[in-house]
Write a structure and sequence with these properties.
binds S-adenosylmethionine; DNA polymerase, domain 1; RsmH; 7 strands; alpha/beta; globular; disordered N terminus; 2 domains; Rossmann fold; 7-stranded mixed beta sheet; SAM-dependent_MTases_sf
C-alpha cells in the first residue's frame, strides 16, 4: 500500500496587483528608491518622478553659481528630499558644513536618515526642523553663510502622498500643511470662510479666473450643511462651480482651477508669502560678506517678491550683483522633469 503523503498546506496565491499599482502605498519599489535603482531610472526616463522621491531642479545652474569651495559654510533653507543638499555636500569634499532646514517633520526625518546613511554625518551636516522665516536665529547661532539656497514650495513626496491632501488627483483629507502638527488644515480653514475672503484668496494667491464662482459654490455647499473635508469634496465643488462652461472646455478648466485652488489654499494655510517676505528681509544679515543666495520659485507671486527684494537690495548697496533676468531650467531638464517647467531661479551676491 502506498504510504499516504502528508497533506500539503495550500498556499494562497499572492494576488497580482498589475503593472500599474494605483494606490500610493502599493508603489513599493518606487517608495524604496535606494533599493530599486533600475525601476527608478525607468520612471525618470519617462519624464515622471518616482513616488517617494523628488528630482532636484536647476542643480547645474545652482552649483555653477555657488562655486562651492571646501571649508565653506552653507545653508539649504528647504531640505526636502535632500537632492540639492547632497550635491552641495559633495562639493565640500569633507571640509566645511551645511545646515539644512525644513518644517516638514515627516519627510525631513527620512531625508536625514538617507543622507546620514550615505555618509554625511553630523560632522558635516546639521538638519534643523525650523521655518526659514527664522533664518536670523539660525545665522546668529551658526552663521554667517557663504551660500544660501531656498527651493520654495512643496516636494514631490508631499504632493504624491494622499494623506497630506496636497493634490486633487488623490482622495485624502484636505490638509495641505507642510507641518501637519501645527496650525489648521485647509478643511478647517474653509469651515468659517466668507465668500469675499475666499474669492480674494483665490485671486491673490493663484490668479484664479473663476474665483467668484468657486467661492460662491464653496460657501453655498457649506450652508447646505455639507462639509468640505476631503480633496475630492473640494474637487466636486469646483466641478459644480464650473458647470456653466461649455462641455468641451469644462474638463481642462476644472483641472486648472483645481490646481490653482489647491495652490491658493496651500499658500494660505502655510502663510507662504509672509514667511518668504521674512526670509528675504533677514537674508542679508545671514550672509557672509561676498556670500551668495539662490532662490527657486514656482509661481508669479513668489517670483515677484524675490525680484523686488533683490532689486531693492542692489539699489541700496546690500547686494553687489543680482541676476539681471530670471534663469529657467533647460528644455532637456523640463522634458525629464515636468515639475521644472514653472521654475524660475534668481540669485544675489552680498557686498564684500
Ligand atoms: C521643493 S522642496 C525642496 C526640494 C529639495 N531642494 C531637494 O532637492 O530635494 C521644498 C521643501 O521646503 C520645505 N519648506 C517649504 N516652506 C518652508 C519654510 N518656510 N521653512 C522651512 N522649510 C520649508 C517643504 O516642506 C519642502 O520639503
Amino acid at each position: 500500500m502506498e504510504q499516504q503523503q502528508p497533506e500539503k498546506k495550500h498556499k494562497r496565491r499572492v494576488r497580482y496587483k498589475g503593472t500599474h499599482p494605483r494606490r500610493f502605498e502599493e508603489k513599493y519599489k518606487e517608495l524604496n528608491p535606494e533599493k530599486y535603482g533600475d525601476t527608478i531610472q525607468k520612471v525618470i526616463s519617462k519624464g515622471s518622478t518616482p513616488a517617494g522621491m523628488h528630482i532636484s531642479i536647476c542643480v547645474k545652474e545652482i552649483l555653477e553659481f555657488f562655486d562651492i569651495q571646501p571649508g565653506q559654510k552653507g545653508l539649504d533653507a528647504t531640505l526636502g528630499y535632500g537632492g540639492h543638499t547632497r550635491k552641495m555636500l559633495e562639493k565640500l569634499q569633507g571640509k566645511g558644513h551645511i545646515y539644512a532646514l525644513d518644517v516638514d517633520p515627516i519627510e525631513s526625518v527620512k531625508t536625514e536618515k538617507r543622507l546620514h546613511d550615505a555618509g554625511f554625518g553630523e560632522d558635516i551636516l546639521t538638519i534643523k526642523h525650523i521655518n526659514f522665516a527664522n533664518i536670523d536665529q539660525v545665522a546668529e547661532e551658526v552663521g554667517p553663510f557663504d551660500f544660501i539656497l531656498a527651493d520654495l514650495g512643496v516636494s514631490s513626496m508631499q504632493i504624491d502622498n494622499p494623506e497630506r491632501g496636497f493634490s486633487y488627483k488623490f482622495e485624502g483629507p484636505l490638509d495641505l500643511r507642510l507641518n501637519p502638527e501645527k496650525g489648521i488644515s485647509a478643511a478647517e480653514r474653509l469651515e468659517d470662510i466668507t465668500k469675499a475672503e475666499f474669492e480674494g484668496m483665490l485671486i491673490e494667491n493663484a490668479d484664479e479666473p473663476y474665483a467668484k464662482q468657486i467661492a460662491k459654490e464653496t460657501v453655498a455647499t457649506m450652508k447646505r450643511g455639507k462639509k468640505i473635508k476631503t480633496t475630492t469634496d473640494l474637487k466636486d465643488v469646483i466641478e459644480r462651480a464650473l458647470n456653466f462652461l461649455p462641455e468641451k472646455e469644462r474638463k481642462e478648466a476644472v483641472k486648472k482651477s483645481c490646481q490653482r485652488t489647491f495652490q491658493a489654499l496651500r499658500i494660505d494655510v502655510n502663510s507662504e508669502f509672509e514667511v518668504l517676505e521674512e526670509l528675504l528681509e533677514k537674508l542679508p544679515d545671514a550672509l557672509a560678506p561676498g556670500g551668495k543666495v539662490a532662490i527657486l520659485t514656482f509661481h508669479s507671486g513668489e517670483d515677484r517678491l524675490v525680484k523686488h527684494a533683490f532689486k531693492y537690495g542692489k539699489k541700496v548697496g546690500i547686494y553687489s550683483d543680482v541676476a539681471k533676468d530670471v534663469i529657467r531650467p533647460s528644455k532637456e531638464e523640463c522634458a525629464q522633469n515636468g515639475r521644472a517647467k514653472s521654475t524660475k531661479m534668481r540669485w544675489a551676491i552680498k557686498v564684500k
